[in-house]
Amino acid sequence: MFGKIATESANSWTLTKKDGSTVTVTITPQTVFGSKKNPEQASAFTVGEMVAVRGQVSGTTVTATDISQPRQHPGMTPPSGAPAPSAAPTTN
């Protein structure tokens, strides 16, 4: 599931999905942040950031097993503040 972090507390986050609906993400001591290659702490994720969440879904609540930044694919809009990749060659 993908969503933008709307609120954060120590044990739960609220995500806003693309369709505008919200989901509560329950954070447990077993929740893994980042990836095996690039582990993160919960504090690395900030309100307004897009995240990918995996876990057990129950209604509008997800008990997160892992939370990471979604991989960027060609043609996707970069996160706010990130430079957009340039398709045009540069000349000096």
Q: If classified by CATH, what would the architecture be? A: Beta Barrel
- What Rg is obtained from the alpha carbons, in whole angstroms? 15 Å
- Described by the principal axes of the CA atoms, the overall outline is globular
- State the helical fraction: under 10%
CATH superfamily, by name, is Nucleic acid-binding proteins
Instruction: Give the N-to-C terminal Cα separation.
Output: 43 Å
> What share of residues are in beta strands?
35-45%
Mean pLDDT: 84
Give the class-level CATH name.
Answer: Mainly Beta
Derived structural class: mainly beta
Tell me the quaternary state. single chain
User: How do the strands of the widest beta sheet line up side by side?
Assistant: 1-2-3-6-5
The SSE string, one letter per element, is EEEEEE
Number of strands: 6
Strand count, sense and barrel status of the largest sheet are: 5 strands, mixed, barrel
Features:
92 residues, five-stranded mixed beta barrel, globular, disordered C terminus
Summarize the structure in words.
0% of the residues lie in helices and 39% in strands. With 92 residues, it is mainly beta. The chain has a single domain (2-68), classed as OB fold (Dihydrolipoamide Acetyltransferase, E2P) (Beta Barrel). It has a 5-stranded mixed β-barrel with strand order 1-2-3-6-5. A hairpin with a 5-residue loop joins strand 2 (12-16) and strand 3 (22-26). It is globular, with a radius of gyration of 15 Å. Residues 73-90 have low confidence and may be disordered.
